[in-house]
Amino acid sequence: MSMQILRSEVVLEKYGKALAGKTGILTRLHDPDFSHQANIFKVLITGVSDESIAGELAVQISAVNPKLLILSARAESKVTPIINKIKESKPNVATRFLNMELGDMGAIRKGVENDLADIPKIDHVVCVAAVMACPYAKTKDGFESQFGVNYLANFLLVRLLLPKVQAAGPSSSVIIVASSVVRRGKLNFDDIGFSNGETYEGWAAYGQSNVARVMFAKKLGEKLKSKGIRVFSIDPGAVRTGLQKHVSPDFRAQVEEWRKTDKAMTDVDGNKYDIPPWTTRSEGAATMITGMIDPTIADFTGSFLKQNAVANEELHSQIRDEQNWTRLWELSEAFIGEIYPL
Ligand SMILES: NC(=O)c1ccc[n+]([C@@H]2O[C@H](COP(=O)([O-])OP(=O)(O)OC[C@H]3O[C@@H](n4cnc5c(N)ncnc54)[C@H](OP(=O)(O)O)[C@@H]3O)[C@@H](O)[C@H]2O)c1
Q1: From CA 201, how far away is CA 197, in angstroms rounded?
Q2: Is residue 260 in a domain?
Q3: pLDDT tens, 272-326?
Q4: Domain of 52?
């Protein structure tokens, strides 16, 4: 598929049968655990709220009759409007609120180990939650908050969910949402915490956390390739959501000016790129769905996706360097105090 901004409905219409158990999951229909009903897949999504892309993703996926949507947020009130929307249009789709504060590793562990103990298989894990360019803060475990919430929480969450994803078998997926900001972001291995906040800059920290997300997907994709589990990092494009809450009015106005004048941005290696155009939430969620189910990109697992297509050529040299994937992986295992059994 060439790069195209598409609505979620279009991607689901094209490939949704893979979710409905007819193609991607066909190989598993002999598995006694799978009944021959269409709606056999389960999806876990983080960052769900009425104004977020993850909330839209949940509503969109409900259209193809999942068996269960596990919707995670740090307050039930965030998820309730989405559950209500799904109940209205798809009363037979089961939903479950999963309470997880991603800035607290203990809460992530509790969420998976206690609250999901009765669910042995999860077909698709979509890590969408994030905070952008916020004032300096630390997670409960002492990490700079954007690195902690946007990246390290995913590293731990996926580690804990991996047995369930592996149990779901080939064609399952792990989707790590990132951003076009990776083009300007760098991971400062020598000082991930911005000297305990002294050198903190909100956009640099957002960029760093997204670089980490993309490198994580690269390494995880490599490790899970032989098992047929899909892993992609995703740039959803520019969507008006709750994410912009920390962006100052002056900076917003500046970016709109750049958009109007087609100002080119420059990435870490000096390559030019355009500021992404505003799109709808449905268009933002579409590339996540592409990552989950588009069969034509399965061989590119680990890749960075943008506008429903593989876009690795957009990644700068630090992100492409495989030694950095390994360095981050090992560092992250030390941070979570656990190794991945892969
Ligand atoms: N919107 C864009 O233009 C854009 C562009 C590029 C990439 N992205 C990426 O797309 C993803 C979705 O963002 P969005 O635009 O939908 O933003 P959003 O509306 O702000 O959604 C992000 C969600 O993450 C949750 N979250 C933040 N901190 C959390 C924490 N500590 N624990 C648990 N949940 C937490 C938020 O919940 P609370 O309300 O409780 O904080 C919120 O529901 C993000 O990964 C973002 O980096 C977005």
Answers
A1: 8
A2: no
A3: 998 999 999 999 999 999 999 999 999 999 999 999 999 999 999 999 999 999 9
A4: 8-242+280-336
